[in-house]
## 1
Amino acid sequence: MKRNVILAAVSAMAMIASAQAANLSAPAVTEPAYVPPPYTWSGFYIGVNGGYGWNSGGVSVIHTEPCYYVCDSGSRWLEANGINHNFDGGFGGGQIGFNVQRDRMVFGLEADFEGSGLSSSARFEQKNWFGYATASSQLDWFATIRGRLGLVAYDNWLVYITGGAAFGGVQDSLNQNFDWGLYTKGPSQHEVLGRSHSDAFVGYVLGAGLEYGISPAWSVKFEYQYMDLGFTRLTLDGHNIRDYSRSPDSEFDSGHSFSTARVGINYHIVPQYAPLK
């Protein structure tokens, strides 16, 4: 009996040792390392942007027949014909778009809308005439619909060119202000002649940009655009002042082409990303 117990204990110990040896010889099982999906520009996105626009030749005023009693060079405006005045200001708005990525190429379509503070104004004095002219141009808003063609240059950097149709709301005005009292040396007697024009213009836009993906859902961009919305020409005929003097005829050209530089941020809607966790 005692012998049987000893044999059973020895057999159990041998079985345990054999099982442990088998465990030591089996390869260890480890969890695979997480590999994030490759960055993609494909999908819809929406964002905001802001920047600055400028044009060195926004307002140009031309005057013809500058008569005071008779037409002569002494009654011309102090500023020469064709003098330009800067057209500039800030803007801000939003954009929405869609991209498709094929290898390193990215094809997209984007639309944006901007509230604008771009404006230009000028005042023109005249010799031997008791008045002045004012001209102004204001871009209230602009929008674009553009195609985008990009190349993934390095890591999450996207370099692209863009172009398409542009739209903008512009207000232009031209006024003549004169004071007959300055001539008679009597009480001030102001009179104003004016014309204004407000309309939505259609043109084109070209540009280029650089965008960086800071995460699967967010990117920042830096973009330059050149936009041309045509121009406005207003004419204002002079008239006789108290049958003694005639105010000059005025012609006003307002160019609606300008450059913009902007910074923007986009939120991308991509399948791999669980937003707002």
## 2
Amino acid sequence: MVIIHSNQLQQKINNFTQENNIIQLCKDPTELYQKKIQQAVSKSSVLISKNQQRQVIQMKPNAPYLNVLIKTHKQNTPIRPVVNNRPAPAYRLAKFLNKSLNQMIKLPYTYALKNILEIAHELSNLHISSLYRLATFDIKDLYVKLPI
């Protein structure tokens, strides 16, 4: 748990948005995106059946919103942005398409690990030649600076 004055937190958020060239839009585009998604879904009856079309359209969508976590282990305690996409217009559709594609395309060597203990167990069973080195990298700001 982190206790921080609201003004100080707001200043960290403002600094983050300025450093990453994030701008506030004049108009919320959520309704426009919702209409485009509805049109695309209605035209894609081959991929999405009529019954499924109702399930993948988000009723009363909202723009994703930003939450922040404080990185207490870093100098100057920067923030980590966490965006909640659940209310976004494309959330249900993306979830549906992800599930459908995973069923159609079986990708080899994919891993989803539960916690650090499972990672440690997997790595201890891994035999690595002395010619190789194991390295980990901490990617700054969780890909925030990568261009879309």
## 3
Amino acid sequence: MDTAIYGKFETAWCPGCGNFSLLEGVKRALAASGLAPHQVIFVSGIGQAAKAPHYLRCNLYNGLHGRDVAVATGVKLANHALPVIAESGDGDIYGEGGNHFLAALRRNPDITVLVHNNQIYALTKGQASPTSAPGSTSKAQPQGSPPPMNPLTLAISQRAGFVARGFTGKVEHLAGLIRAGIAFRGLAIIDILQPCISFNKVNTFKWYKDRVYELPADYDPTNWHAALDKADEWGERIPLGILWRDEERTVNHDRFPALKSGPLIGRRVDSETLRKAMEEYF
């Protein structure tokens, strides 16, 4: 399938932003997965990263700041036959949406979560985010930010289904990770490193390029302890790839007997059952 089917739009991003490469990676992953625009739904929050699905021909629900993972979980419950992708930034998903991120780790919804991680709040002009380096200063943090969270060690520690890291400087590799995440049955989290050329002058494209490396072919993503070690590797060497994979966990929608016979979206309302249920409130 040609990526042109997903459209081409004028964006509000700064020239050189990592979002451009990330959007291209998403298009390639969708095309390689054989998904036409009407066959997938994106859910986004607020921020420069959350605008990404706006520049894509697809079904889209644009929600409140930090609520995209929660909404994506609900969409999947309503129609678990539909591929659902939540896409936003590190501030939106790890900050405002941190509680929903934690809930998703417990529930294991069958959704793909794409996090644009530029280690900064870009739309609101450069405040430190949950992943900013310790001591990072801004107008909002003149004394420097506290130590960052590591979302991947957190996700792996809770045995999330699929945990990966990509980089916008390796678009084909990133597209492969996104495709694998979409195909995975369960919660797939892909943390994607990207530069913010306007507000993050430390974690530049070159900074990442000098440090990232792809996990070797013999790396075992089912080794929990090794996955934690790899997720914690940061600084001079930063691993890219599928760090952890667990296909044994129960998927969220499999817990609901009402969904065994198919998605809710395709059913007719049973008026008699609804009437009896409503009568219990009177």
